[in-house]
Structures are given as C-alpha cells and as structure tokens.
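Quick board copy: two proteins, each given as sequence then tokens.
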Amino acid sequence: MTAQPDIRITHETQWSDDAATLLQQISDQAVRLRGRFLLALSGGSTPQRLYRTLTQSEWKQRMDWRHTAFLFGDERCVPPDHTESNYAMAQAALFQPLGIGPDHIYRMKGEDQNPSSAARAYEETVRMVTKCPPPAIPQLDLVCLGLGEDGHTASLFPGTAALQDQTHLVAVGRAPKGVTLRLTLTLGVINRASVILFLVTGSTKARMVRRVLEPQSTADRQLPAALVKPDQGRLIWLLDQPAGSELTSIRR
C-alpha cells in the first residue's frame, strides 16, 4: 500500500526557511547513511525562492554541499543560457552564489538538436552518477517537484506519452504552451526516490492541490502529480497557506 503523503502547511513568510530546513535534514541523513546526497532539482519560481534562501549567509554556514550531486527533474529544449532554461535559473540563483563547481552539476542538455538523443544521454548520466546499471531503476535521495495549474509535474503533462513511459528513466516531454519540447525524468525514477518533495506556493495552485490530494473523480486521480506515488520512500507536500487554502482534511 502506498504511504499517505506528509502534508505540511506553513506561513508564506516561513515557507522558504522551512523548505531549506527540510532539505538540510534529508541531505544530512543521505550523507550519514550513504556518504553522498543525490538531489534532482526543479525549475520554476517557487523552487527559485528556496534556492535564494540557501544562498543567504545563515544557510551558507549550515549547509555542506561537498557530497551533493545536482541532477535535474526536467529541462526545456533550449540552450543552457536561455531565459527559459531550468539550468540557467539554478546557475544564477544557486550554483554561482554558492560556488558549486561543475563537477557536482549534471544538467540535461536541452540544446541538443535531437531531444530523444538528449534523453538517452541523460539516462546514461543518471546511471553513471548513481552507479546503477540497467535494468535496475536508480534511487535518488531527493526529487524536488513543482505543480502546474493543469496538474503537471516535472515535464509530465496530462495525456502525453512521457507520462506513460515505463521503459526509460528520461523521456521527451511535450508542453501545451511555451517551450513545447522538454526533457523529463519519468514516473519510474521519480517514484523510486527516497524522498519526493512537492514545493507549492500561491493561491493560484490551491484548486489543483485539492484535486491532487483530495481527488473526487477518475480524472483527478489520473493527473500527473497524482501519479507520483513513491514505491517505498516518503512523499512530502510543503505548501504555503494560500496553496493549501482549499484542502478540507487539514486542521488549521
């Protein structure tokens, strides 16, 4: 039986520090148990808030990144310096301010002219970093995810082939708008993670949060974010109060 999600709702002003504290706890445990921390980052404005918090002086002193390998949950098929690139955002908001060296960073090469080749190459990268040969599925320590207003997460969009891919670790995703072509981790590797952490803020996400966490229909249960169900790991939703405002089962 899939474990119930751990739903945490915090005040908007406290959310970033709570997210950073949680990340530190997961990192410390991974390093203590396995000597390294395998972290898959998410793009978007909400994770960016966390990244900027981690670069503040308090957190610079508290976090030890020497044992961390930074992977990515998804990427748009754009060059690494493009304004829509998840890597470019993480580079500006996290890696550069912290002085993270390139030997710790494993980005998806969205600029590849053949997205399918880029997906295969990143699958090889994930296997290399995790030392996990096929057909086994690697276990990342933490996968950070966001939530789209259409229920997508990473670049797994409703009704797309990537959502159904049970063969690969990385697939080509297709978004309905914006930069259409994406690279994305598949549900197989996401659900294998030790910890999956949804980072969601803002009232515009409240309705979708309720649909995913308190589904009322088959359509709700088939939303990409609702299909994130860890095989054995922990599933945590860290919400600010506006994002969790429509949940009925949470005592406030």
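And the next:
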Amino acid sequence: MVDEIGDLPTFSIITCCMGRLEHLKQSLPRMMDQGDTEVVVVDFSCPEDTATYVRENFPQAKVVSINNRLTFAAWEARNAGAAVATGKWLVFVDADTILSPNSLNLLANKLQPDSFAKFASGRNLQVHKSLTSPLSLNSLRGFMLVERDAFKKLGGYDEVLKGYGAGGDVEFDYRLQYFGYNPVMIPESIVDRVIHHGDELRLANAGLSLVDSYMRGRVYLQIKRTIMGFFGRNPPPPVQRNIYQAATKLSKSTLKNNGSGSINFGFHKIKVKIDENTPEMTFKLSINVSVDLDDN
C-alpha cells in the first residue's frame, strides 16, 4: 500500500486474472502488504468475477475490467494495467506468485535508471525451479520490473502476439535490451512460493495450441528483430500486424505439411527519417522464411 495519501508510490504491482481467482486469493494479500506500493488487478473477462471479489475484499486496490473476451490476451491485459498505474516502477506479477514480505523494498536499492529486473531462466533457478512439467520451468519468466517511463517510451508489451507460448515477455525483454536498458537479475528470495498447478490450467484460456502459438511467436520475433536491426526502431503497428499474419500463415502451413513450410512476403512503405537534415525515405523489404520441425 502507498504510505501517504497523495504521494505517488515507488512500485505499482500489476497482476491479471482470467480463471485464476483461487490463486489470486492466496497471492493478492501479500501484494497488498508491500510497502510504498499500489496494486492493480486486471479482470480479463474472468468467469469468476475477479473484479467484484477485489473491490469487496481489497478496496485499496485499483481494478481494471476488460469484458466480453473468450480467450486470455496476457500482453493486452498487462498494458491495460500499466495504463492506470502511477508508480515509478511497474512490477508485473502473475496471479500464482506469492511474494515474500517487504520484498520490493529490499529490491529497491538494486534498481538503477535505464535498467529493468527479471529472474534468471527457469533452468537456472535454485529455490523456485519446478519440474512438474516443461512449461513449469517458466513459472517466473513473466515476472518483470521496469520503469514506467521506459515502459511508456517503448510502447509496452506487443499485443499482436497471441496464445500462451507466443513469448511476449521474451519479445519485450529483447526490445528493452536493444534500446539500451540493462537487465538486473532478481534474487529468488523476493518470492515466497509459486503455486504449483497443471498445464491444463496454463492453457485453459489460450485460444491457440501451444505449438501453434509458439511457432507464430518465434517466427514473428525473428522477423521483427531483423526489421529493428535494419531500421533501428520498433516496426509501426501496421507492419507488426503484417508480420504476424505472415507468421500465422507459415505456422498453419508447417503444421499441415508434416513439419515443413516456407513463405515469401514483403513490407512496403516503411518510412525512415535518419536525421533533421535528410528527407524521409521509403524502403521496401522482402523476406523469405522457411521452417523445418525436427521431431528429435
């Protein structure tokens, strides 16, 4: 909670829920008990009516409701929470993650301007490494701290990506580092425990199969990196949609044709202005992508 009314908090915890209310009932009290912190809960069309539960039991929390959605869009949900947050640092925490007492204040002195904080990869964790399934190795992958100004400057999470395995956290991590923000590893001690659960719950509201969402995301990310490297900036939304449409087409073709596929597509009218003394230039970029899945 914020220490003094009217003061902006150091941290804004943002957590999202669609079908995870039982987890949130365990994790939200610890989020609310962090010092100098506001909490934003995003109810993403939760069938358990998370918004009502939070308003009745934790009126100090901010609630954002996104209605009439059939599938969970994690990156849209996180962006919606960030839009109402006021803290200097945004802290994205999944509903199944229970923080240790006073953990954010203990972390504060490790944070520096032009940095962001994340956990090591799942395989390198010691305390919270879970082997209940391959997917559980990534149980803390979505936990991230980033300055609100940096988040806004970079445009937040990429909402084009869909499905559980799309890698929106990986994409944003890459984009932060590409534009000069330095990663700081979060000590595992700030998390008390992660609520273990099966993959059925992870994938329940994904909307796409894990393989399909993963393939689309990987192809999208590789193409987006190519364009960012060429133009030195994040592609504009129309180009992002074009990339994802091509990645979707390639994924469907690959899955249909026994694990291999290729596609040609082009991007037109990508405009770049190098500096104030040069005219705006229009580039055409054509890309060929092929995929072969190895069963081994």
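Board note added afterward: The first helix runs from residue 21 to 32.
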